[in-house]
Design a protein that fits this description.
The chain is an alpha/beta fold. The chain has seven helices and six strands; from the N terminus they run ααβαβαβαβββαα. It holds the Pfam family ACP_syn_III.
Length: about 240
């Protein structure tokens, strides 16, 4: 049950957590299966599987397992990690592979409840477990095979604002199966400040490169981390909330 105050502060009404007998692989496979069914494709039609996750079931990556479990016998598989931006990076990566592969399955997944500190109310209510999947398909019409535009960016100096670090102090050769990663840490205030300052800048650059006006855009879909961030960004860009999803 979420603390009422956190609902007001974040806009989060529900947060999903895996049961003890569940794991992230189950969610990955379920979402991938649904994506195939929705796209009316057979597993053998998939040429590539990309899984974006910061908390894979297998430290070496889960894309091969997803491909195997849903029966993609012809796919090349890869994993990438980019935290909250994982799906965006996976989508852009898949887009740039479309000239070689026709059907690309993208899965975004995380099980962050395994790493949150449940005593830290500032972070534990924000992170849950989920997976989603889409299929990107190349069409015969070349003009249809493109994203209108995208703009990516990173700021490596802020790496320490959100971390799950390997805990060297807990490393013990006598207990090799002990989880060696620490708890999730986030400097929420600095993340908030950076986000509301930089999302408008990045969005303006993407729009500028597209040769359109911000008024021409029908809907804006921002990262769903915090309603206050979304509202502040919309206000700074003079975007009506009716256009924000």
């Amino acid at each position: 049950m979420l603390i009422p105050m956190m609902k007001t502060r974040t806009g989060i009404k529900k947060r999903r957590i895996l049961k003890r007998d569940e794991n992230i692989s189950m969610l990955q496979i379920d979402s991938a299966t649904q994506a195939l069914e929705t796209s009316c494709l057979k597993p053998s039609d998939i040429d590539m599987v990309i899984n974006a996750s910061s908390t894979p079931q297998n430290l070496f990556g889960d894309a091969n397992n997803i491909s195997n479990k849903i029966g993609c016998k012809n796919s090349v598989n890869m994993d990438l990690t980019a935290a909250c931006t994982g799906f965006i990076f996976a989508f852009v990566t898949a887009y740039n592979f479309l000239n070689r592969y026709k059907n690309i399955l993208i899965v975004g997944s995380d099980a962050l409840s395994n790493f949150v500190d449940w005593r830290d109310r500032n972070t534990c209510v924000l992170f849950g477990d989920a997976a989603g999947a889409v299929v990107l398909q190349r069409t015969e019409e070349k003009e249809e095979n493109k994203i209108f535009n995208y703009y990516l960016g990173s700021d490596s100096e802020l790496n320490d604002l959100l971390t799950i670090n390997f805990d060297h102090d807990k490393y013990n050769l006598d207990k090799p199966n002990v989880n060696k990663y620490g708890k999730l840490y986030m400097n929420g205030k600095e993340v908030f400040k950076y986000t509301i300052s930089n999302i408008p800048k990045i969005l303006k650059k993407a729009i500028q490169h597209s040769n359109i006006n911000i008024e021409d855009i029908n809907y804006f879909i921002f990262h769903q981390a915090n309603i206050r961030i979304i509202e502040t960004v919309a206000k700074n860009l003079n975007i009506p909330m009716s256009k924000v999803k």
